[in-house]
Write a structure and sequence with these properties.
Elements (H helix, E strand, L loop, with lengths): L6 E4 L2 E4 L8 H7 L10 H11 L12 H7 L4 H23 L9 H32 L5 E6 L2 E6 L8 E4 L8 E13 L1 H4 L5 E2 L17 E2 L4 E13 L5 H10 L7 H31 L5 H18 L4 H18 L2 E3 L4 H6 L3 E4 L11 E6 L4 E4 L10 E2 L8 H16 L4 E2 L5 E2 L2 H12 L4 H4 L1 E7 L7 E9 L3 H4 L12 E11 L1 H4 L3 E6 L2 E4 L2 H16 L3 E9 L28 E10 L6 H10 L3 E5 L4 H11 L6 H7 E3 H5 L3 H8 L4 E3 L3 H13 L4 E5 L5 H6 L2 E5 L5 H6 L2 E3 L4 H41 L1 H4 L15 H12 L1 H6 L23 H23 L17 H26 L15 H19 L1 H7 L6 H32 L1
Parallel strand pairs: 11-24, 11-27, 20-23, 24-26, 25-26, 27-28, 28-29
Antiparallel strand pairs: 1-2, 3-4, 3-5, 5-9, 6-7, 6-8, 6-9, 10-29, 12-13, 12-23, 13-14, 15-16, 17-18, 18-19, 19-22, 20-21, 22-23
Helix pairs in contact: 3-5, 4-5, 4-9, 5-10, 5-28, 8-9, 9-26, 9-28, 10-26, 12-13, 18-26, 26-30, 26-31, 28-31, 30-31, 30-34, 31-32, 31-34, 32-33
InterPro entries: ATPase_P-typ_cation-transptr_C, ATPase_P-typ_cation-transptr_N, ATPase_P-typ_cyto_dom_N, ATPase_P-typ_P_site, ATPase_P-typ_TM_dom_sf, ATPase_P-typ_transduc_dom_A_sf, ATPase_P-type_domA, Cation_transp_ATPase_P-type
Pfam families: Cation_ATPase, Cation_ATPase_C, Cation_ATPase_N, E1-E2_ATPase
GO molecular function: ATP binding; ATP hydrolysis activity
Amino acid sequence: MKQSTGVNQSDNQLVFDQDPSLLDAQSVAQAMHTDIERGLSTQEAQRRLEQFGTNTLASAPETPKWKKFLAQFNDPLVFLLLAATVISGIAWVIEKLHNPAEAEALPFDCIVIVLILVLNAVLGYMQEAKAEQAVAALAKMTAAQTTVLRDGERSTVESSQIVPGDIVLLAEGDNVAADGRLVHAAALHIAEASLTGESVPVSKNVATLEQAKALGDRSNMVFNGTAVTQGTGKVIITATGMSTQVGHIADMLQGAEEEPTPLQKEIARVSKMLGIAVCVIAVGVLATLAVVYGLHSIQDVIDSLLLAVSLAVAAVPEGLAAILTVVLALGVQRMAKHHAIVKKLSSVETLGSASVICSDKTGTLTRNEMTVQRLLTLHDDLRITGTGYEPKGELVVQQHMPPSEQAAQASAYMLAAGAIANDGKLNDDASIVGDPTEVSLIVAARKIQADIWAQHFTRIAEIPFNSERKRMSVVGTLSMPDASEYASAHLAPWAQVADGKQLVAFAKGAPDVLLQYCDYVFDQGKVRVLTREDRERIVSQVEQLSKEAYRTLGQAYRITGATQIDQLEGAESGVDLADQPHVIEQHMVWLGMVGIIDPPRTEVRDSVAQAHGAGVRTVMITGDHPLTAARIAQDLGIIEQGEQSLERYTLTGNELDQMSEREFKQAVAHTSVYARVAPEHKLRIVRALQDQGNIVAMTGDGVNDAPAVKSADIGVAMGITGTEVTKESAAMILADDNFSTIVAAVREGRAIFDNIRKFLRYLLSSNAGEVFTVFFGVLLAGFLGLDDPASAGVTVPLLAVQLLWINFLTDAAPAMAMGVDPSTENVMNRGPRKLTDRVIDGRMWSDVAVVGLLMAAVTLIGMDLYLPGGLITDDSAVGMAHADQIVMARTMGFTILVFAQLFNAFAARSGTRSAFHGMFANAWLWGAVALSIVLQLAVIYVPFLNTAFGTMPLHAHQWLECIGLAALVLVGSEIYKCIVCLIDKQRA
C-alpha cells in the first residue's frame, strides 16, 4: 500500500503509520482497500487470511513430541539408574571376556533396567498428553462467530477468519473479535473492563479524535476481547491476532518465566538427596570391601561393580516419576469432572497448599445474573423471589406472605414501565441480549405477567441513557391487550389511552435523578400530586436500598396527550427527542423503584465456610462499589456482619494508593474485601500476600487480570467469561466460573498431596529396606554365612535384577493404587501446608528408617535360615551344595522382601493411624497386591524365569516362613505408630 495512505504492509500485518483513531473513517477505508458498503470480496478475504494469518493469539511454540518424550528421562534418579546400567554393562563385558563360561548369555540387569526406564517414560508421556488434550478440548467448546460484510452480503464467519480490512457488524451481545475503527454507531456501548478495567460500558461514536488518547478514551475504536452491551455499530478491522491490543499483552506474557511448584521443588530435592546418599553409601561400602576383603582379581572388581549397581537399584524408586505423573493425572481427571481444568499436572498439588484464595466477585462468588429482588412503591416494600434470568418467581412481603391486591398491582405497573423503557431482550431459553440490568427488569415483569403492556407498546422514539443523563425514556403508542389478558391490566393508569392513537412516555433511571422530572405519584390506585413529604420518603427509600448494596432504578410514565411527535409541546416536525429531552421528560408520574443485585451463588457460602475451616482465607477483589462488595462478602461469610467489619476488613483502591508500603503490607494481612480496585492493585495484593509466606490462588477473567493471574501461585481463569489471554496465563480454568469449584479443587489437591505422601512413605521405606538389606548383608556376610570361604571376594545378598524386580513389582501397581486411596482423614479440617513444610518431613524420614530396618532384619533372618555358618540354619539347607544354598537363601530373602513391602503398603497409608482402619476401603490396592503375588509366584516357579532372576522353587513350609517373617513388618509398624502417638500426646 502507498505510504500516503498512512498504512504500510509489513510482516504479515497491515501497520498504521498513524493512529487510526486520528483518521476519518473514509480515509481508513481507503487505506485498507475496502468498501464500507460492500466489504471485502470472498477471494480477497481468503488472500488476506493466507497472507496475514488467522485472527488468533499466538501461543508458545509447541514442543516436538520427541522432545516431550526425552524430557521424561530428565531426572537425577533416572541419570543414576542409567549410570548403573552402564556399570552393569561394563561388568558383563569384562566377565564375558575373562570368564565366558560363567558369564550370562545376555546382560539381563542392563536389559531389565532399560525396559523399566522406557516403560516409565511412556507412561509419563501418555499422561501429560491426556492433560494437554483436556485443555485443547476446553478451547474448542465453542467457536466464536462474527457477522461481516462480504461481497455486499451479511454473512457469519468464525472469528478466527477475520482479516484486516473486513467490515464487521456489531449488535448487542456480540463479542468484538479484533481491533477496528468505527464507521457507524447507534447508541453503541461496549464493556471494555477486560482490557481497560473500566467497569461501566463505554459509549462509542464515529467522531475523529483530534489528538492521541489513552486506550480507554479512544471512543471511535473497538478492541478485541470486549463486548457490546447496547446499540449497533459498523467497524473497519485495522488489526487482528497478535497485532491487536490484547495481542500486545499476550506477547509480553510469553516471556515470563514460570516458577516450579512446591512439589516439583521437593521431588527435585529428594531426588538429589537420594543420588548423593546412594553415591556415599556405594563409595563407603566399596571402600570397606577393599579394606576388609581386598581387590585381588578382575572378579573382585566385577563383584564390586555389581554391588554398586545393586545399591543404586535398591535405593532408587525407579517408578517414582511415572507413579507421580499417573497419580496427578488421575487427580486432574477427577477435577475435570467437577469443572476444574488443570493445565499442568504439577499444579494439582499446589492447589492443596493454597492458604489464600483471591476471588473476583462477579460471576465467581455471584451468579453474574442481575436480579430484581426489591419493589418499592410509595408505601409498599415487596420482595420478588427467584434468581437469575429464569422467569420464575412470585411477589411476597417481608414475612413471605402474599401482598395485598393493590400493592401487587402497583408493583406490576412499575415493572411494566421498566420493561417498556428497555433495550434488553430475554430469549425463550433464558439467555439474554443487552445490558443485564435492563434484562433483569424484563425477567421480573415476566415473573408476575407484568410484561403484557410491553408486548402491546409500539415505540416511536427514544431518548437513550448516558452517564450524564442517568435515565432513559421511550415514546410510543399502546394498544389494548387481548381480552384474556385484559382483566389483569385494565386498571393500569395509562389504560385510558390504550387505543393506539395517543402517545405515552415511559422512563427509568437513577431514582434521585428521575424524581426531579416527576410532579405526580401513583398512590393507592390513583394519580395525585407529588408532595414534599412524598419526595423525602422516596429519597429515604433510595438511601436505605443503597445501604443494603442494591442498585436502584426508578420508573415513571407520562400520558402526553399528543397523537404525534410533532404535536408535543415545544416540538417541531421531525424533532430529535435526544436533543430535546425536556419535551418528554416533564410532569411525569412516579411509579416506584426496584432494588437490583447480582445475588451470591447459594453454594458459595458453604464453600467459604469450608475453606475457612481448612485455614484458607477468602479475599474478594472487585471493581464494584464498596457497599455492594461488603454486602456480598457478609452474605457469604467472608467478613462478619456489622459496620465494624466494613471498617476493619474492607478497603478501596483509593485508600490503597494513599498507603505507604509498610501500611499496605499490614493492611493486606487482615483485609478481606477490596473494592473499586484497578488491575495494578490486584498484582500488588497478590505479591504482598506471597511475601507474607502465603500460597495464593488468584481468579481472573479479563485481559487486565492476566498479570496477577500469572504471578499467583495458582492462577485461575474463568472458562465461560474469561479471555484467551487470561486462560493462557492460568494454571487452572474453571469451566463453570464458580468459586465452589476452586474449594473443591483445593480439597482434591489436599487429598492428592496426602496420597503422594502415602506412596512416598511406602516407596522410600521399601527402598530403604532394600538398601539396608544389601548394606548389612555385605558387612555381615561372614557372620550370616553369606560368603564362600572357598572363593575370594564377596557374595551380594540379592542380585541387582532381583532388586529391580522387587521395585517394579511392589513399587508400580501398589504405589499407583495408593495414589487413588480414599482419604483416611478429613483433609479440610486442618490448616494449609506452609511453604517451609517439607513433603518428606523429619517424621516421615523416621518412619522410612524404622520400617527399612525392620524389612532388612526379617529379610536377612530369612536368608540366614538357609546359610550354613549363620545364627540359625534350617534342616532342609543341610547337605545342599553351597551354590544351591546361596540361591535358596536369595530366593527366601527375595520373597520375604516382596511380601514385607506388600504388608508395608497397608501400613504406609498413614503415619499415625492403624493399618486396619479402613483396610478394605481401597479395592485397587488389594487388586495390586494380588497381582504382585501372582507375578512373584511366576518368578519362583517358571523355569526360564528361575534362570533370569536366580531363583528356585519354594516348599509349603518355606512359604509359611516367608509370610510369617514379612508380617512382622506390619506388626512392628503398628507398635511404632502407637509409641509415636503416645509421645505426641505427652508433648501436647
